[in-house]
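Tokenise the fold.
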Amino acid sequence: MINYIKERSDRLFGVSGKLSKLDSLLGVCSLPENIFRDLRACTKICLYDALSSYYSEKYFKTVLELEDFCELYKDFIFDLPNITPNGLLMPKVETNSSHNIFNKQTFKLIEYLSFESSTRIACPVNLRINFGLRTNPKTLDRPRSSTNWHTDIWAGQNCNEAMIHTPICGDFKSSGIKTCNPQDGFFPDYVKSLNSYIDGREVTDKMDDNCIATTMSLGKTYALDSFLFHKTSLSSSKIRIILSFPIRLIKKVSSDTYENHLRDDEFISLEEWSGLGKNTLVTSSDHLKKEDWDDKPKDHYAGKFKKLNIK
């Protein structure tokens, strides 16, 4: 185990000189205040766009701080139809414009992290909303509920990827993300997609007692190697929001034994990313309306999108 952890750690911390090591497979970077505040502002714009589009007869106060906005309108946010069972705020026809503003600001974060030029980055990104203690109990029984220990490989992420998490607002002490290094038995037999996270229980049963002693906090970005296990906690009544996206690393290591080509088209170059929200728009053709989310496990992004070139 030591050898494959080391090779993965060396690769993770070689992809960006901005990362500091919290643990072998977990890195952190403090963000400039302007980048963090812009991401928070754009998050509120995305929420406002969805709320004002869906509840067209209601007035929503945008002068509030993001946490206050979420607290005041939590009942309305909870009932938005474009939030998946796993908390993703999905772009729709009515909200394409706000999500493209968010993409443009996200590139400032990507640019600051100074990834290797060959790195490919997923598009769209994930703006994930966690409702804490108010989470619908039915979603906790989903095969791939994030409240169970898992690696993103089990949801179809390639081995040669890392997940970038940026906390945007909320209580990450009570409703944060716990992390743990892989147990014996994970590699190589469980390095694959699983229909249910419960199917991996025999290689996660000791993780509650072996968590990495760290708590994510606002104003920082975290990098998680695909072998790092994690799960979501639900101990706060406050809404918690995080920006997440995977990056695909070109360098291969010996433990990269699983690939999922269904997601290849989701990853684009840094050059392509630089134009998002400016000369390239990411668009959904689905409308903002109530729908029954298909709970069948998928090894690709939850929705379908097109890129519209407006040069």
